[in-house]
Prior knowledge:
Blueprint: E1 2-6, H1 21-33, H2 42-45, E2 47-49, E3 52-61, E4 64-73, H3 80-91, E5 98-104, E6 112-115, H4 124-133, E7 140-144, H5 154-157, H6 164-187, H7 189-196, H8 198-205
Parallel strand pairs: 1-4, 1-5, 5-7
Antiparallel strand pairs: 2-3, 3-4, 6-7
Amino acid sequence: MKLVVGLGNPGKQYVGTRHNIGFEAVDALARQLGWIRAGGEFEKLARANFDGLAMDGSISLGGVSEKLMLLKPMTYMNLSGKSVQAASAFYRVPPTDLMIVLDDLALPCGRLRIRPGGSSGGHNGLKDIERALGTDQYPRLRIGIDAPPPFLPGKDYVLQPFTAEQRKAIEPGIEKSAQALMTWIEKGVVAAMNAFNATEDKEKKD
Length: 206
């Protein structure tokens, strides 16, 4: 079984904010899978479970059926580990079959970076997941939201909506994140890294 978790905060006041890009990526993946229609809402079709909203089904991987769950923790960002640990423990999902999707201040808006594990980088959602699972060795997909402007604390910046210009940049990134997640599901983290970290890695070499 594969478990994809998009991080964010519950509540209408947080819809469209930078910190909720993980939720938007899960929505995009659910649309790509055909689990929700364009314009449909994940929240109306998902079931309440594991301190979150969950949607699951079977997908075919090389002719073999495998279960996939999409999960949005409803615990607020700082307590995301509670939901992730509950779902992982119930389905006995090893860390390698778990993918966390989150926002990243260090990446340009819409840029993706996939890693098989590593530090939280100061992200409170990842900090709590690491605490709950007892490891930082689980894949994560970071989606860039730009750095905050001078004199605006990061904790305030992430809870604000994207600017109109940023929204133009983030929309293609959201759709690309769904493609990256499908690549991870079908081919693994190395294939996803090679396909979707390529632009970033090339820029580092230039």
